[in-house]
Amino acid sequence: MSTETPHRAGEKKQIRSYRDLIAWQKAMALGRRVYGATKLFPKDELYGLCQQLRKAAVSVPSNIAEGYGRGSRRDYVNFLRTARASLYEVETQALLAEDLGHLTNKQAESLLADADECSRILNGLIGSLTRKKETKY
User: For burial by CB atoms within 10 Å, which of 15, 35, 93, 108 has the most?
Assistant: First the structure.
């Protein structure tokens, strides 16, 4: 179930695990940043927006990994789309946290930029998988 992806100019890197996927690596980095940014949320948000934002951020790499392990392209793409939807949740919740004063503008913009990068990478991966005609990815 391995594929090749561009690594550096003209070079291809063998994908042996979901952990080799740039999409998963970037999503993990976003999750770590979300956890760091939410550490200073007020205590009354611990089970509210803080938890929702963390849960959405955790969902992104989790869905990439689960989809990779499903063994069919159709399932894989569906899980990648779910991961992308979770990114939109992260964006929305980061904006709300900024509006409520729990995140600074700089923190929110940084998280939004990271989420946008993850989204572009996921869109590319989804596009590459949906353009292929064969049954294996």
Answer: 93
In this predicted structure, the answer to whether residue 8 has a pLDDT above a threshold of 90 is: no
- Report how far residue 110's alpha carbon sits from residue 40's, in angstroms, rounded to the nearest whole number: 16
Distance CA 56, CA 48 (A): 12
Identify the domain containing residue 62 by its residue range.
18-131
Q: Is it the case that residue 5 has pLDDT exceeding 80?
A: no
Considering only CA atoms, which of 135, 130, 116 is closest in space to residue 60?
116
Structural domains of the chain, count: 1
Q: Is residue 8 part of a domain?
A: no
Query: Can you tell me whether residue 105 is helix, strand or coil?
Result: helix
CATH number assigned to the domain comprising residue 31:
1.20.1440.60
98 within domain boundaries? yes
Question: Contacts for 35-41 with beta carbons within 8 Å, 24 or more apart?
Answer: 37/103, 37/107, 37/111, 38/97, 38/102, 40/102, 41/97, 41/102
Residue 4 belongs to some domain of the structure: no
- For residue 74, being part of any structural domain is answered with yes
Give dist(CA 30, CA 81) in Å, integer: 17
